[in-house]
Amino acid sequence: MDLALTLPALALAAFVAATPVPMNSELPFVGILLAGVMPLAVVLVAAVANTLGSVVTWAAGRGLMGGRMGRLFRVPPDRLARAEAWFARWGRWSLLLSWAPGGDFLCLAAGALRMPLQVFLPLVALAKTARYAVLAAVTLGLTG
Q: Per-residue pLDDT tens for 31-87?
């Protein structure tokens, strides 16, 4: 497997998957692991790219990206309202679920609700890294 293409492709998938744009990073992640690429490299690339995608989503929620991001993401108002309610109830700790389906809306809500980046980033990085580490352990444990 050509790492010069594989890891950047994974990074792109993981980055986009952390935005409201519909994308899946788990399938390429598992495929690359099963192809025998070093697990630590795969986890780190996916976690960093997914975290950076979440920062872009946070910035869009904060309004730092201008109107262009709103047109690109096309967030349904009901989904954002649910994320904001969840965020208002559970606060910063809800970001530990940023890896789950719909977690990108929590990141958007965190930005819209003006959570400081220095609070947002460690929580999201922890959640994203843990998710990929567990997925790698399960994948490799089930396959050999």
A: 999 999 999 999 999 999 999 999 999 998 888 655 555 566 666 778 777 777 777
* d(C-alpha 1, C-alpha 7), whole Å: 10
Sequence-distant (≥ 6) Cβ neighbours of residue 74 within 8 angstroms: 20
Q: Is there a contact between 86 and 94 (Cβ–Cβ < 8 Å)?
A: yes
With residues binned 3-state (H G I as helix, E B as strand, rest as coil), the percentages for the chain, rounded to 5, are 80, 0, 20
Range of the domain at 117: 3-143
Tokens of 131: 């998710």
Total structural domains within the chain: 1
Please name the residues in contact with 25: beta carbons below 8 A apart, sequence gap of 6 or more. Answer: 10, 13, 14, 16, 17, 46, 50
Tokens found for residue 42: 């795969």
